[in-house]
Amino acid sequence: MPTSPNHPYIPNAVPETKREMMREIGIRDIEELYADVPKKLRLKRRLNLPKPTSEHEVRRHVEALLSKNESCRDIPVFLGAGCWPHYVPAVVDTIVQRTEFLTSYTPYQPEVSQGMLQAMFEYQSMICEITAMEVANSSMYDWASGLGEAVRMAVRLNNRSEVLVPRIIHPERLATLQTYVEPLGLRIKSVGYDPKTGLFSLDELKRQCSDKTAAVYVENPSYLGFIETQVEEIAEITNHKGALFIVGVDPVSLGVLKPPGEYGADIVIGEGQALGNHMNYGGPMLGVFACRGEIELIRQMPGRIIGMTTTLDGSKTGFCMALQTREQHIRRERATSNICTNEALCALASATYLALLGPQGLRELGETIMVKARYAMQLLSEIRGVKTPVFESSHFKEFTMNFDKAGKTVKSAHQALLKRHGIHGGRDISQEFPELGETALYCVTEVHPEEEIERLAQALKNVLGRGRR
Amino acid sequence: MKGLMFKQACWDEPIILSLGRKGRRGYVLPAIKEETRKRVGEVFTSLPPKFRRKTLPRLPELSEVEVVRHFTRLSQMNYGVDLGFYPLGSCTMKYNPKIDDVLASGVAEIHPYQDESTVQGILEILYTLSKWLAEITGTHEVSLQPAAGAQGEFLGALIMRACHKFNGAIEKRTELIVPDSAHGTNPASGTMAGFKIVVVPSDENGCVDLRALKAAVSERTAGLMLTNPNTLGIFENNIAEIAETIHDAGGLLYYDGANLNAILGKVRPGDMGFDIVHINIHKTFGTPHGGGGPGAGPIGVCEELAKFLPIPRIGYDEKQKRYFLDYERPESIGKVRGFYGNVAVLVRAYAYILSQGVEGLEEVAETSVLNANYLVKKLSQIRGFELPYAKERPRKHECVFSAKTLYKETGVRALDVAKRILDYGIHSPTTYFPLIVDEALMIEPTESVEKEELDRFVEVMRKVSDEAYSNPDLVKEAPRNVAVTRLDEAKASHPRTMALSWRMHQKRNVIKGGVP
Q: At which of A338, A353, A368 does a domain end?
């Protein structure tokens, strides 16, 4: 039996050490250090928690629990909707596991944190390159909360009372936006779409956009996967009314799609998970946040921004946190946001990922995804009763699939796919967008081999019980 | 001095965007069959011409080797918990168990919208963790959704808002009270949630001034945000009376969980009268801080407030023995982010609590407090540093020293002390916080440091004090042994000299120094 307690993470738990330290302090019992906690408030029993467990047992237990899951490693999964399966190169995992990065914190002492600071500056710089914006912060929590922060930033800039969002928006992003702006009393109005193409209704936008509009928000590619091509027109209408133009992007698309900085975006947000971060059952994610270079905008940005500087003697370039007077630890109730701990390590993963890809890699990634997604759409649209995509527009990696004429609900078709064929279908959006009927949102990326796509088509055909047209 | 040598790596590592050569690549994409390509046709040129990317982004073109070397070199210029003592007050920079990282990788490839039948394991972990956290904090129900402590605070303040709204009182309950010693996130979160911040001063013991608090509460009071032990490391022993004052006025009590480490298994926020509690998973439950995140900031609430928690909740169906996501919460405030929370961080916390067990968590609290009080005793004997507020009272997990005397007598400031500490291979304490202490050095040793390292830290502090009195310039010119000497932070923030991205730097070319 061990002579000292089992606390591998607590070096001073050894009773003799404790006694020595207590002697030094002048106490006989640790309890004396809690003497000022009123007795009546003290917990008079032990917490109802497990006993201490050895690493081997913890491992067996947790691995047994995790083995009850079926992940995208076990079965083909065609889900996207804001969290996407992309391949994460081994280099990325290796770099984020460097414990000098992993076990550090906010670089309050920049002189011993140059590594993370430079990496964050590089992340910001690469985000600026792919979005064609001037400034990016070093991360928000995710796309959804980034949207909340972006709209709040717009309101700080123009003090207006409404925001326009597309009717086709991720419902969780809309819900998060509502939570973020509710205290401001801001009104969220949605702009409808052309039922044929899914694209923004410009007429409706013109009608709704006014001098009350703080910002107009567009997602590209949209939540339902098609590309919103009228962005220049939208930017013009928005500018005309003096509102800010906020664009939400899937950054993976920016090797093939025109970057928002080239079509007038004032603020760009997006989901950086796609850039080298695992899905992790939805978190952590990585909120991308960038804006134009005007000082008025930069001063209203939320979050941490890393800047380049020099040593005080000017002899060497270095990096430190910039514009800290916007942040909560300095500005307190007048801060631009309350964010402190962010998603720095995920930003490091994205910086590593983008450095591996380079310009050509990002282009090829976009093309590969488009080829595979299109291949899937072609195969799937051959199934009788299936309409895919629902909208006649260009799509990137996600697309809608309607089952109305197949005589099955998405739910029952997907259950059969999963139970009988071991394939996980896309996201059932028939509740989210009832006007689209029995429709699902599918996602195909570079991780889906053609065989898997063919298997999906075959299985779905089987499930829907009919042959080729 | 023996055992105090330190020299951080110092690579002249250029900005990655300036590295590489045309044609190099660090990643090859999965192949596509020729027949697939043929069948699908050209994709890029099928895009509407005005919507194609014309010029590729100016990303670097690098081989895998160069990318690995670049970031590995950068990592060597970064100080983390695994390198040594990191007494950054309020941040609880404790050891991050490696097994927890290993286990967390088991959720990497799970998609958040997978069918519930395929995610029973992870749902069980999250469900159990939320029960454990409720037990630890003495709350009724816990939501794991917030991504960080500050988001937990924002959510907590929104729940206060929702509760007053539910009771038809939000029009008049507009004020949120925070002590002058509070973390900056408290007033910032309260403002985001639409409240006016009312600051109450601390008394001569460094605790909330009860008389001032009583004067500040009114029918406008929405609630109070408090951390206990407070940022001085002192337990607010009037907490029962504080809670009564707020509750009698119709307000709610919010617990900032930044300092929970000190009281695990000893006293619970819920039992102190707090209605809403956030937990900093990355502090108390040993998950890595990641250079600034990701963390996780779950919140626990009393029974009355549970209906306002964000959706979805994780439920368990006893009959069918299955876990499920519950969206049927009509009074819920909605969502503060996408999906369910920082799951990979939460899995680590599950493994951490299981490893430590109930006795281990008590040991965490006791030893973190023992270590802090040991430092109080030792550092009080060093010239130039003194312990402000209630000297006779024990500290909890952290202590705050003032370098006011040192500054007065030598001209060496807390900032200089912090920079000189870096030269000895130790991370500095938090400086200039809390705001109620002049020349503050806020020191949180945590439980995961051995006595020898504490003694070494004391020796370093003594040495720095000696240096300040004998050769103050040596301290003022620190650090010397780390990757760069003191940086010009004003230059980084000045509109004329700011360079916040590589393209901004290239356009303006205002930062002129050596490499990178």
A: A353
The answer to whether B127 and B137 are in contact (CB under 8 A) is no
Q: Which amino acid is at A387?
A: K
Average pLDDT, chain B: 96
The two beta strands, B322-326 and A287-291, are: unpaired
A329 contacts B367? CB cut-off 8 A: no
- Summarised one tens digit per residue, pLDDT across range B344-397 is 999 999 999 999 999 999 999 999 999 999 999 999 999 999 999 999 999 999
What is the overall mean pLDDT for chain A?
Answer: 96
Q: Kindly list the distances between the CA atom of residue B343 and the CA atoms of A282, B103, B111, B143, in Å, as whole numbers in the listed order.
A: 7, 12, 11, 12
Residues A267 and A338 in one domain: yes
Is B139 part of any domain?
Answer: yes
In this structure, the answer to whether residues B349 and B373 fall within a common structural domain is: no
In a domain, A4, yes or no: no
| Residue A401 belongs to domain with CATH number | 3.90.1150.10
Asked if residue B10 belongs to a domain, the reply is no
Cα–Cα dist A194/A228, whole Å = 11
Does A324 share its domain with A449?
Answer: no
The domain of A437 spans 358-464
Task: Give the tens place of pLDDT for each residue, A269-322.
Answer: 999 999 999 999 999 999 999 999 999 999 999 999 999 999 999 999 999 999
Task: Decide if pLDDT at A67 tops 90.
Answer: yes
One domain for residues A370 and A310? no
- Decide if B222 is inside a domain: yes
B307: left (phi over 0), alpha (psi -120 to 50) or beta: alpha
* A4 in reach of chain B (CB within 8 A): no
Q: Which of B162, B107, B100, B96 is nearest to B340 (CA)?
A: B107
CA angle A397, A403, A406 (to 5 degrees): 140
Domain that holds residue B370: 365-476
* pLDDT value of position A1: 46
Q: Which of A320, A312, A303 has the alpha carbon at shortest distance from A107? A: A320
Share of chain B above pLDDT 90, in %: 97
Tell me: pLDDT of A103 over 60. yes
Half-sphere exposure of B487 (CA within 13 A, CB side): 29
Nearest beta carbon to residue A179 from set B158, B393, B482: B158
Distance (Å) of CA A52 to CA A8, A31, A58, B178: 11, 22, 10, 37
Of B59, B75, B106, the CB nearest to A126: B59
CB contact under 8 A, A179 and B333: yes
- Count of the separate structural domains present in chain B: 4
Does residue A29 belong to any structural domain of this protein? Answer: no
Query: For residue A184, what is the nearest residue in chain B, using CA coordinates?
Result: B194
Within this chain, do residues B306 and B372 fall inside the same structural domain, yes or no?
Answer: no
Q: Which two tokens stand for residue A263?
A: 């079509």
> Within this chain, do residues A365 and A395 fall inside the same structural domain, yes or no?
yes
* Strands annotated E in B150-294: 175-179, 196-200, 221-226, 252-255, 276-278
Distance from CA of A312 to the nearest CA of B (A): 5
Measured in angstroms, the CA of B67 and the nearest CA of chain A are apart by 7
User: pTM surpassing 0.95?
Assistant: yes
Inter-chain touch B355–A53, beta carbons under 8 Å: yes
Which residue in chain A is spatially nearest to B19 when comparing CA positions? A355
- What 3 state SS string does A323-385 have? CHHHCHHHHHHHCCCCCCCCCHHHHHHHHHHHHHHHHHHHHHHHHHHHHHHHHHHHHHHCECC
Strand ranges inside B348-436, DSSP E = 399-402, 430-431
Q: How far apart are CA B415 and CA B468, in angstroms?
A: 12
- Which residues make Cβ contacts (< 8 Å) with residue B279, sequence separation at least 6? B133, B136, B137, B142, B152, B257, B260, B285, B297, B298, B299, B300
Residue-level pLDDT at A468: 37
The number of distinct structural domains making up chain A is 2
Say whether residue A135 is in contact with chain B using an 8 A CB cutoff.
yes
* Boundary-marking domain end, from A353, A383, A411: A353
